[in-house]
Amino acid sequence: MDVLMLKGGNTLKGEVKISGSKNSSLPILAATLLTDDPIIIKRVPNLRDTRTMIRLLQSLGKEVDFTNGTLSVKAGKKASYIADYELVSTMRGSFCVLGPLLGKLKKAKVSLPGGCVIGIRPVDLHIKGVEALGAKIEVDGGYVIATAKKLVGNNIFLGGVFGSSVLATANVMMAAVLAEGVTTVEFAACEPEIEDLTNFLIAMGAKIEGKGSPCLRITGVKKLKGVTYEIIPDRIEAGTYILLAAATRSDLTIKNTDIKHLSSLVDRLAQAGVRVYDEKGDIKIEHNGKYKPVSVTTYPYPGFPTDLQAQFMAFMATIEGVSIISDKVYPDRFIHIAELNRMGADIRREGTAAIVQGVKCLHGAPIMASDLRASAALLIAGLMAKGTTEIHRIYHLERGYEDLDEKLIKVGAKIWREKEK
Ligand code: EPZ
User: Fold this and answer.
1) Relative to the CA of 61, which of 96, 115, 301, 321 has its CA 20 to 30 Å away?
2) 199 lines ligand 1 (CB under 6 A)
3) Residue 26: CB within 6 Å of ligand 1?
4) What stretch(es) of the chain map to CATH 3.65.10.10?
5) Model confidence pLDDT, tens digit, residues 144-153
């Protein structure tokens, strides 16, 4: 296994081209199960997670070809309704095949996704949503077994303890588009990735009103057709590189991203003394030299994204003063604190919040990646720190950042790989 080596302390310069969105690709790939027609999807990032979803589609009977970011999906010999453990357990996002399998085949057997380092990751809202449409649910041997004679539209309130749920919204939408009658979903997730899925389903012939809003109205149709579709850019990848530029005081141009999807990050960075702005479709970052500590609390979209919380904390680690970071989506998503402190950061938990006391600088160290976005925070810290950092278990990073080494080397990062000793 490789170790990612970083020599930190220098500023970066140049352009970073953002790939297609991982978190759009996963539900949209799942939605191809809703038709037997051929489908072409462009700008799919080549990542561990998208390759896992491709393997899952193949195990469910699809023929999939994936070349240069373009994915073609055709019906294979025999459709299966069983999403087995070893694929779903490696990637929680696979659980979003539940809705389309139910929608198309009226049955699904999907392994319950395990928890992970960011939280226990329940699926009660997914179950509540499909049960409201008429599915009978059994949980047996670690699998959710869902069957339905037919699916009938209903009024569903999908808000949970932590607010809206992205993939529960996706699952319910994908079950409702082929149901009989009208389904309303209140407290639907408004993330751009859900809007992208909505656009994809509408292109396939689904009838959905309220896209991008917390209230969706879905009128079931008999059949959905094949389409050619292009995935939106990955706002979390873009936000990660913007925070890398802020943290290393670098002049990076972020290409191929919709700044409208990053308003909460732009707002917090402006408070901190970093101006992020759009210049003819490119995102530019301007430093005013004196940074200020800024507190942040994550919320469902359009709030500050939980998937940028760890990266923002890395940026705050060397800003003089105190910033307070809390995560209302995953209250325990702080595994990165221990590793940042090993690099000389001064961060402590106080109840559900993390208190970041800015230090003069971080120092390189051997560190362990744990989850995708915590690993991104360690990457930022390693490029900020004096000295060399080794990041172990970098497969976590490869789940969500396409061509990571190439994109960083292109802007001058001193980054290379060595074999695990
Ligand atoms: C999606 O996960 C993303 N993954 C996550 O990104 C992201 O962190 C998360 O949304 C929140 O934005 C994909 O899109 C593949 P949720 P999802 O259901 O849909 C609770 C990354 O790094 N909840 O919106 O699984 C849940 O515990 C990944 O790319 C319930 O209580 O997240 C959490 O506290 C990590 N019951 C909150 O809702 C449920 O049935 C939001 O979770 C479902 C969720």
Assistant:
1) 115
2) no
3) yes
4) 2-15+234-419, 23-219
5) 999 999 999 9
Average pLDDT over residues 296-301: 98
Catalytic one of 116, 190, 215, 361: 116
Ligand 1 pocket, residue 372 CB under 6 Å: yes
Atom of ligand 1 nearest to the CA of 170: 19
115 has pLDDT over 80:
no
Distance between CA atoms of residues 198 and 187, nearest Å: 15
pLDDT in tens, 359-384: 999 999 999 988 899 999 999 999 99
Q: Is CATH 3.65.10.10 the classification given to domain 2-15+234-419?
A: yes
- Do residues 235 and 257 make contact, with C-beta atoms less than 8 angstroms apart? yes
More confident call, 178 vs 368: 178
The closest residue, in CA terms, to atom 7 on ligand 1 is 307
Cβ 385 vs Cβ 362: under 8 Å: yes
Kindly give, in sequence order, each residue whose CB lies less than 8 Å from that of residue 260, ignoring residues fewer than 6 positions away: none
Atom of ligand 1 nearest to the CA of 126: 40
Based on the residue annotation, tell me whether 96 is a catalytic residue of this protein.
no
Whether residue 27 has a cis bond before it, omega within 30° of 0: no
330 alpha carbon – ligand 1 mean position (Å): 8
- Residue identified by tokens 């001064």 is 346
Domain 23-219 has CATH 3.65.10.10: yes
The tokens describing 282, both together, are: 């490119």
